[in-house]
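Sequence in, structure out. First:
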Amino acid sequence: MKRVIIVFCILLFPWPASADSHVRKSAERRVWKVLTVASLGAAAADVHFTIHNLNNGGYEKDPLARPFTNLPTPAYATFSMLGAAAADWFGWKLQRSRHPWVRRFWWVPQVVQIQGNVRGAITSSHY
């Protein structure tokens, strides 16, 4: 897990202040794509382990996700993937904001979503 955090830090904060704007935007777009793949993968892992946990007599501990686990499996998986896609879209919109201070934090929604789904997958896999 420490290696993943180190890789994210290397990917998210490599841009010097004097870097060319075009190069910085290109690097930010690449990082956004990597975070998008990671967020969808984390959401898929969370769905997989949660459904496996529910089928083995477990229950969902997250009070926000608990109502959606009663849905059929395809609907629950779709809902989870749409949540990840919404975080990706919100990060994309923040990246293209008119306000420079907002553009600095474009990666936050994706990282928070990835962290939540990875934590959920780890918790569900232990039961």
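Second:
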Amino acid sequence: MPTYFFDLRTPTLDIPDPEGTELRDEASAREHARTVVLELMKHREMLTRSWRIDVRDGENRQRFELHFANIQNTTLIAPGTKPALDTEFSTGMPRSTP
């Protein structure tokens, strides 16, 4: 399995991933990066909006970057299930029912 490295970039710090993670393919690496972003954003969305994760492969080639500001901070919901609280994206307030 290929190894992917997930380097965290903030305005003041570059934190390299020295060990990497073995994943099936680039699609798996993208999902892993998204999961890491969501975890790091929890309860500090404004602080992390300017952060990004740069993803490299085992040959040190950059594969993609994921900007925190582009990730909607939602929990991952299994297909066919409903979230416990349905919220409006724009306001964060519960939707009114007709």
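Remark: The longest helix spans residues 26-41.
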